[in-house]
Amino acid sequence: MIRPKTIREVVYEQLKNNILAGVYRPGERLIETNLAQDLEVSRTPIRDALNKLESEGLVETLPHRRIFVTKLSRKNILDFYQTRAVMEGLAAKLAAENATEEELADFHSFLNEMEVVFEKEKELTNYKVIAEINNEFHSKIYYISKNEVLRKMLESLQNPITLIRSTAWTKNSTRKYSTLNEHRLIASAILQRDGTTAQKKAEEHIFNAWKAADQALEDENASG
Amino acid sequence: MIRPKTIREVVYEQLKNNILAGVYRPGERLIETNLAQDLEVSRTPIRDALNKLESEGLVETLPHRRIFVTKLSRKNILDFYQTRAVMEGLAAKLAAENATEEELADFHSFLNEMEVVFEKEKELTNYKVIAEINNEFHSKIYYISKNEVLRKMLESLQNPITLIRSTAWTKNSTRKYSTLNEHRLIASAILQRDGTTAQKKAEEHIFNAWKAADQALEDENASG
DNA sequence: ATACGGAATACTGTATACAAAAAGAATTTT
DNA sequence: AAAATTCTTTTTGTATACAGTATTCCGTAT
């Protein structure tokens, strides 16, 4: 049974995609009326969508003031990753402790798939495929952790982080390889139900991701 | 220079207060039209406020379906505290590491104030005063941690937790005393710039708060 | 009686008109 | 010419009317 999507939902997804894909760049101004004209809807669903995006940290605004796509500072970015690190650590730990046997079996076969994809995409040119399977890896952990609150918060952190990555980090093969390795370490700890190690490896993984993102942004600023 | 508040801001605060104070009970249905009439405004700012409250987890709704004040399950509550624990831990650790000398001095004198308040309110009957100063204690830590992302997320977690406390936990003197003691332990670690201990003590503190809340809710269900 | 189906109704979603505030342009003042 | 001040324009905030969907109520059939 499918439910027809409301206009605001469609608008929300479109705007979000445009922001995350860099169509609307960080710092760019958004005007309700223009967006409404472009998407051929009234301002009402546009405003609803923008409100939601604001609470997710993708746009910024003050009452009666203009609306801008969020532009994150280097400190902001560190803050995001730092926060995400402890949350991913908790998720990994809970996953190791709370997964059912079925879920672990499932997770195991997903890992095999992942290996196959990486094997096939040896050149790692297909950034989108890699990014997708990496996101799926993390999502699986959130779900088997059985903590809904944590899952939702981590999912909402995903947006700003995608925003960061869309600006920097187009192709950094070294990082892609180490990501795969780090995922292996986390997964192995979860499968062995070793919560402590899973937590530690997950935290380290996010820390490394931060270092890579930070480095990429620095390089970009230095060259651009 | 003060800015006149927009209607939606006022409405948001009113609805939020009513939810957190238990005027609108968990599970209760909210009707836009009625709220608009009660507050003597149009539906527009009501809808804006409800959308915001939804993204903060205080109300729940599906498209074209009714709106309800969030009713948290026991598992939800555990999830909230579990998540908050690691985040408070991180905040305490960062506070110990990143506070300036001035901030530490400030924090120290706040602690003295806190002791005075508790001394004066020996009977601990004035629940509101105690709750306020406890919240302030945590807020101070968020600020001196220097991590804005973490602070905002912790602040948004505060709402559902207040919701939990408003239903259970009216007066539990034992818990109030141990809260003071636990706060002392966290503070002392921060003042000594011992990040590891601060983190550990903060995590334990939230875990204990969860145990108390969970117990109170169980008792309430058993009796009520 | 109970289950099903179809109006009636109650509420949320959307469009649009109008109000108010902020940003920008033009004008005056120094 | 620079700064301050008014006024114009642009843009967001709010009210309201209308559209569309879910829920309720009632009648009918089994």
UniProtKB/TrEMBL annotation, chains A, B:
Organism: Paenibacillus naphthalenovorans
Coiled-coil portions: none
Protein name: GntR family transcriptional regulator
Transmembrane segments annotated in the record for this chain: none
UniProt cross-references to SMART domains, sorted A to Z: FCD (SM00895), HTH_GNTR (SM00345)
Keywords: DNA-binding, Transcription, Transcription regulation
InterPro entries with a match to the protein in the record: GntR_C (IPR011711), TF_FadR/GntR_C (IPR008920), Tscrpt_reg_HTH_GntR (IPR000524), WH-like_DNA-bd_sf (IPR036388), WH_DNA-bd_sf (IPR036390)
GO MF term (any one): DNA binding
